[in-house]
Design brief:
Blueprint: H1 23-54, H2 56-66, H3 69-96, H4 103-127
């Protein structure tokens, strides 16, 4: 049996100083983050609708929060998350077909998801 302690002792995982981020890794992490972040936007919209049903005083308080800079930031972030999550889902359907799995294509598709989600968010905000 080979001696495991022979040679150079290497770390078990790459160090942050030498590890380079890849686009497919970033897009995978962003897909998980946006999926969870969509819950925050959904809860804000649900709270707004429940406040509308609860009465004018409650609605005024929640509506004031939704129209604040933080509420608008959450709603715009949720809009971006919807578009990003949608495009990432389409990318994964393409992957499930067995296509685009090579690294250059996966990087191009990841960049397309990032750029496309920003462009679609801006277009949606301009239309609204």
């Amino acid at each position: 049996m080979a001696d495991a302690k022979r040679g150079v002792v290497r770390p078990l995982s790459p160090h942050l100083q030498i590890y380079r981020w890849h686009i497919p890794m970033l897009t995978s992490i962003l897909t998980r983050i946006t999926g969870n972040g969509l819950v925050a936007g959904a809860l804000l919209v649900i709270a707004w609708l429940l406040a509308a049903a609860a009465g004018p005083e409650t609605f005024a308080a929640v509506d004031g929060f939704v129209r604040s800079w933080f509420g608008i930031l959450v709603l715009v972030g949720s809009l971006w998350a919807v578009w990003y999550h949608y495009l990432a889902g389409l990318r994964h359907l393409y992957y499930d077909a067995g296509k685009g799995l090579d690294l250059p294509t996966a990087e191009r598709l990841g960049i397309a998801c990032l750029v496309g989600s920003v462009v679609l968010t801006v277009l949606t905000l301009l239309i609204i």
